[in-house]
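Readers of this paper often ask what the protein records in our data store actually look like. Such a record has a labelled line for the sequence and another for the backbone structure tokens. Nothing more is needed to write down the fold, since each code stands for a local backbone conformation. The remainder of this section carries one protein's record, kept here as part of the documentation.
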Amino acid sequence: MKLLIKAPCHLTSFKYICRLGYKSILIPVSGAMDAPALIRGNILLGNPDNAAALEMTMTGPTVLFKEGNGAIAITGADLQPKLNGQKISNWTVINVKAGDVLTWGGPCGSGLRAYLCVSGGIDVPVVMGSRSTYMKAGIGGLEGRKLAQNDELSTGQQGGFNAGVSCPENLRPDYSADKPLRTVLGPQDDYIKPEGIKTFFSTEYKISPSSDRMGTRLQSDSIIEHVKGPDIVSDAIPMGAVQIPGQGVPIVMMADRQTTGGYVKIGVVHALDVARLSQFLPGSAVRFSEITQEQGIEISKTEARALNSLRDYVKNFSVQTPQVPAQTTAKISQAQSGAMNITVNGEKFFVTWERL
């Protein structure tokens, strides 16, 4: 298919799941803020999990489907999408044809970001292993920028899809605003006073309007006190790391976070709750709750099972009428677990890993 952007919007850019392997040269992972939503959209359409889609914030662009036929699936926040003036549903595969026009009404209820997934994925160049746009460096996507009027997009090879198939409610991401952000303490929680740890888990914070794709900044009158000040020797920043800078109020690091940082990190929010956090509007209330690393792994396993259940559901959907023959690709065998010996700064470690 070919898509023409008739009218741009506040912020729409291309997103993969992430960009890996370049943090050593200060290129962040970037990628989708709500990766679980993006992946589900691609599964519904028979795309690879990481097929490029459009991430839209608050509203979406007016899109003319200029050439070809295919399908779309919109996931994430409900931005009131309409096809040819008729409201369409999120989490559902919908046929589109040349001449169709997609418009948006804006946020409806909860949610901030939506994903427009298309059959075949959006075909933009792979830059450093990803099609994601990272606008601060001007790389990826379409010239490293957000979409503009008259931009023309093409899609890749389409797989099999079934119009009308929807992601079951129980397999969709949980966007509940009243549930705390599950957080594993560390790696520098010992740099925080014990009463500061209690403050962190007992305080209700508000999301600051200054939050962005780099970090969700929180607001509160409750201050978390450090043991020896907020600074450390800079080290790696994982997704969901919770920094406690000098003012003593948390910042949760998001998709476009810097690769390293020199503020104390009190904990790391689980990736699923980082995705949920990315959907909260400024002013929303958030809390944190403590989990163990083992509990975090179980949460990840549950998510993996949900995605596999969705794949099975889509595969076995009752109306098997793929619109385009599926592309045949060779399957690559991947190890599911392993172990290795590593040495860091002269200290030896035995490490085991398991694919979730």
About this structure: The radius of gyration is 21 Å. Residues 2-171 form one domain. DSSP finds four helices and 23 strands in the chain. Residues 135 and 145 are 5 Å apart (CA to CA).
